[in-house]
Amino acid sequence: MPITVTAPRGTLTATGEREILPRLTAALxxxxxxxxxxxxxxxxxxxxxxxxxxxIYAGGVNRPVVMIELKLPNIGLGTPxxxxxxxxxxxxxxxxxxxxxxxxxDIWVNIVNAPDGGWGIGGRAYTGDQLVAAISQG
Length: 138
Hints:
- This protein is α/β, with parallel strands linked by helices.
- It has one domain: Macrophage Migration Inhibitory Factor (2-Layer Sandwich), CATH 3.30.429.
- Helix content is 33%, strand content 29%.
- The protein has three helices and eight strands, in the order βαββββαβββα.
- The strands form three sheets. Strands 2-1-5-6 form a four-stranded mixed β-sheet, with helices on one face. It has a two-stranded antiparallel sheet with strand order 3-4.
- Helix 2 (80-96) links the parallel strand 5 and strand 6.
- Helix 1 packs antiparallel against helix 2 (80-96).
- The protein is elongated.
- The model has no long low-confidence stretch (mean pLDDT 93).
C-alpha cells in the first residue's frame, strides 16, 4: 500500500521528514485493523518527496501544500467512515510534523483505489478476494 508524501522543503520539520512515513504507515495499519498482521504490515511502504518550494502549486499559484496520497486495492478502507477517519488522522499527523504557522488547510490527503486484480506484489496480481485470503492467513 504505497503512501507518497510530497512537501515543499522547509514545510516539514527535520523530525517530520523522518517520521511522517512511519507514522502514516502505523495509522493505515491501525485503521485497517491489521496491526501485527505478517502479510499486510510489510506491504505498507512509501516515499517522501521534499521539493523546492517554488515547485509546489495549488490553484495555479505557488503555495506550501503538503500532499499525502495513499494507493489501495479497492477493498482497502472500504467505507466512507474508514476513509474519513484515515484522512483526519493523516492530517493530524502531518500537522504535528510541519513547522509552526503552516496552515492545516494546506495539507491534502487523497486515497486512490486500484481495480480488482490491479494490485500486485512481486509480479503477482491479487484480486480483492485473494488479498483477503492472504491477509487472513497473516
